[in-house]
Amino acid sequence: MNRRINALAFASALACTCVPAFAETLSRQDAVSRALAAHPLLAASAARREALLHKAALDALPPPLQIGLDVENAIGTGAVSGLGGAEATLRTVYTHERGGKARLRGERGAAMATVEGVRGDALRGEMALRAAKRYLAVLQAQETLRLRRAEWSTVQALQADVARRSERGVATPADVAQTEIALARAAIDLEHSEHELRSAQRALAALWSGSSDIVASEALEPLPPPPDADRDAEPLAVQMLAAQREVLDAERRLADSTQTADIEFGLGVRRLQALRDQALVFSATLPLGQAPRRTLEYARIAAEEQALEAQSQALAAEREQRLYALRQELGQAAREHAGLVERLLPSAARAVEHQQQAYARAAVPLAALLQAQQQLQQLHAARLAAALRYHRLLIDIERRVIGDLP
């Protein structure tokens, strides 16, 4: 039984500690850069913006020249049966746009492309933060794996010591069983940590569809300083609001241009079959009743402007409130980490040392030493969790500084 547990623990430790020779070392910035360069969602956003730019160029073109053929008084009854009395007219139609409508349509399309560009910037920021968080997950898994490996080594050393004491008749069979259980649990925790690391590596590499053989080169500790509370940054909501207002302004200018009506001119040649003659045909068309449509368009634009302003105010208030809460949580995480590192962990380490000495003198039972070691392991895990929470809060603060889109 003892040999089987030792073999399981050793195999788990060996699998977890071996790093492939071809594993790639990445910094956080490397991971972010790869995600921004290769993620398909970003390519899709860029393609949408390019499509809008092409549409803006298309909208800026004037109406095309039209050619038409009209045939009248043909294939009837009596005198107009067949084609003998048909009248055919070949005409061209040209729409003369006034008020610069083609140029204004192009400006509206360009403004819509700018809106898509801001959305693309927001998506790039979101992807960068996602890559940063997944990189942190790899860091945490690596640190947890090192911690579990140290725990397994500690329990293995303790088991060997208890086995020697048992041979001398100092340790009881219950002590031997307790160390076997502790070593088996340490091996399970070690294997679980390995799986967590592999999952975190694959999740990070999925952002650029690359290999998951990754080693994060940075460290969770020491903690970086908190960000400047007065840092100047233009939220994306402000940029989006400005871009959407430009779209509405372009639509308003386009509506203004309808005050100058377009004129449709037609010019053609009519063939009078019955008279065996031909003549020119001229026409001009002017639309009427544009004022009610223009009034409704102005009302729509004004309502959308009010909606944008209300959304902007709501997002600004939510952003400030959330930033305040995140900074409070960041300070609490920093204080928790400092308390663990400066006070609790040194005290727990001294407690383990005292219990080891006492157990060596047979002054305390093995359970007391195992409990002290477990408490030290839990505090180390809490230290890593506090460091990870601090880094994740830094990322969330960065996201809130940038802001959300309306």
Overall geometry comes to elongated
Major sheet description: 4 strands, antiparallel
* Total beta strands: 6
Q: How many structurally independent domains?
A: 1
CATH class: Mainly Alpha
SS strand fraction:
5-15%
Give the CATH superfamily: Outer membrane efflux proteins (OEP)
Read across the widest sheet, the strand sequence of neighbours is 2-3-5-6
Percent helix among the residues? 55-70%
Task: Write structural notes for this entry.
The protein has 406 residues and is an alpha+beta fold. The chain has one domain: Outer membrane efflux proteins (OEP) (Up-down Bundle). The protein has eight helices and six strands; from the N terminus they run H-E-H-H-E-E-H-H-E-H-E-E-H-H. It has helices at 2-17, 28-38, 40-59, 101-167, 173-205, 236-257, 290-360, 366-402; strands at 24-26, 66-72, 87-96, 214-216, 263-272, 277-285. The chain has a four-stranded antiparallel beta sheet, with no helix packed on it. It has a two-stranded parallel ribbon with strand order 1-4. Helix 2 (28-38) crosses helix 4 and helix 4 (101-167) packs antiparallel against helix 5 (173-205). It is elongated and about 135 Å long. It starts with a helix and ends with a helix.
